[in-house]
Amino acid sequence: MRVKLVWTDRRESDVEEEIDSPCSTLEDAEVWAKELLDRFNDEERSMYGEKGRPRTLLRVELPGSSNREHDWRKTSLTTQRRGGELYDAMRCERCGITGKRPGLGGIVLDSKYRAKVYQRCDTAMAHLIMKRGKR
Ligand SMILES: [Zn+2]
Predict the structure, then answer these.
(1) Ligand 1 is a single-atom ion; what residues have CB below 5 A from it?
(2) Which of 37, 62, 103, 113 stands the most exposed, by the fewest C-beta atoms within 10 Å?
(3) 3-33 pLDDT, tens digit each
(4) Distances from the Cα of 60 to the Cαs of 17, 18, 19, 24, 122, in angstroms?
(5) How far is the CA of 72 from the centre of ligand 1 (A)?
(6) Could you tell me if 57 and 21 lie in one domain?
(7) Domain that holds residue 22
(8) Residue 112 Cα, ligand 1 centroid: separation in angstroms?
């Protein structure tokens, strides 16, 4: 399937590149794209050494979708109650972060997702991929 890779070499703005992949899911495409960039980085290093510009994968998307908005789904069948407050437990289908939706108003992200990077789905996903990669 055709996917859009977004990567950076830390010297200019993020680069978006549409490319045909042998994968059928975005999850597989993530792994595949990471290996692709690893190979590129190996070559880059052997050719240019310290002067090379290794690329870091930020995210993989379907072409034409920007995925800025989280795709929230309720994870609790019934409304939860805590300290007199009613809320629905929510989870984003795409990036997997969680939050709570009180009866009124928008979704409040859970405390471990309070950083600004989690406010947008695409940046949250990129951040989580980077974190996973470091382990
Ligand atoms: Zn999300």
Answers:
(1) 70, 92, 94-95, 121
(2) 103
(3) 989 899 877 678 888 899 999 888 899 999 9
(4) 10, 10, 11, 13, 9
(5) 7
(6) yes
(7) 2-65
(8) 14
